Amino acid sequence: MSKALNDFRLKLAGKEYVPIFVGGMGVDISTAELALEAARLGGIGHISDAMVPTVSDRRFKTNYVQEKQKKYKFNIGNVDKSLVQFDLERLAEAQKLFVSRTMDSKKGDGAIFINCMEKLTMNSPRDTLQTRLLAAMDAGIDGITLSAGLHLGSMELMKDHPRFRDVMIGVIVSSLRALRPFLKRAAKFERLPDYITVEGPLAGGHLGFGADDWHEYSLKKIVNEILNYLNENDLNIPVVPAGGIFTGTDGVEFLESGASAVQVATRFTVTEECGLPEKTKHHYLEAVEEDIIVNTISPTGYPMRMLRQSPGIADGIRPNCEAFGYILDNSGHCQYVDAYNRELDKNEGKISVQDKTCLCTQFRKFRIWTCGHNVYRLKDTTHKLEDGKYKLLSAEDVFNDYQFSKDHMIKLPERKTSTASEISLAAA
After folding, report:
1. Structural domains of the chain, count
2. Which of 147, 181, 174 is nearest to 48 (CA)?
3. In which region does residue 30 sit, left (phi positive, over 0), alpha (psi from -120 to 50) or beta (all else)?
4. pTM (2 decimals)?
5. Per-residue pLDDT tens digits for 297-330
6. Which CATH number fits the domain that encloses residue 269?
7. Longest Cα–Cα distance in the chain
8. Engineered SS bond to 172: which of 46, 147, 311, 403, CB 3.0-4.6 Å?
9. Chain centre distance of CA 221
10. pLDDT band, residue 420 (cuts 50/70/90)
11. Could you list the residue range(s) of the whole structural domain that residue 114 is in?
12. H or E, element range at 145
């Protein structure tokens, strides 16, 4: 008899959850509203602290970005960005505001986690990461997912916080090789992760694989290697596969092989609660497989999967590190700033930067359309309307489909224009 994800439960920190994580897509694409729906339905939702001052300004009418830009306005034309620093007190304030407001709205038996990227170096990698981690714990977050980096020093940054052993902490890895040193460092503080998210080569956004060889790797193989390693070392840590899990049955196959939950995101990009502009959601729905590319335009150094129609690709927009500057390393350098100034020296007219993009400005404007490999299948999860557009879904629709569907079937939303209350089933 076939099973559904609802036949399983994830056990974390003495509680049980529906074994579904909704991934933390940055710059408020995974909105608080989306995370709250996942929690209300008994699963685990993620918010992201990527560019949290910008998120706070949009949501709560604060002025963090304007204040920072005003302070460093004198430096806008300067190639050297080493002077541009984040005010750590204001950064902590923005993080606490965003997290606390989200947690205050939480309902249901699920949990809210926050995705914290190590690659948001912010011209002071250690201090800015520590500020974000501690502020999230101060504000009552249920869990922290450490992403976009090895996070070898992150446990040390949190060890003195009173909630260090209370808040759930997980790490995202793409290989056993990346996991081993993290576990070794964590063991020094007698604080192993509460869960391990294993992100495979079909995931959206930044990848832990090469731009040319990602297709040579298999999520199932990596997950099995990590499960075997944990078993051999008597480590009882839940494993959460992510990347390319498009149906509930995809998830069941992982859970039957020893995983404890699955993380999904791409199907939630076309929900009403997702933070993407509606026009962009329809670009996702209209995408075909040939539209999906993996390139190296990210200044983080990681390959990144996106739609080739993304308007931020090859855009030569002037860097605005004085307002943003989230990718500046500890010397005040960013690969996009270097590429922009290289083209500025060569051209007098409109600049096009082909090899890098300004992640800060482009993500803020939703002009880099990151996506999972299966984005081209989104059109099979909904109806095409009379005007030629596709019907957007609710987060509850998608979550319930993952939770209860069987046999790789996807339950389409009800056609409100239909004369009968007909619910169609479509093979995924």
Report:
1. 1
2. 147
3. beta
4. 0.94
5. 999 989 999 999 999 999 999 999 999 999 999 9
6. 3.20.20.70
7. 68
8. 147
9. 22
10. very low
11. 5-74+86-276+390-427
12. strand 143-147
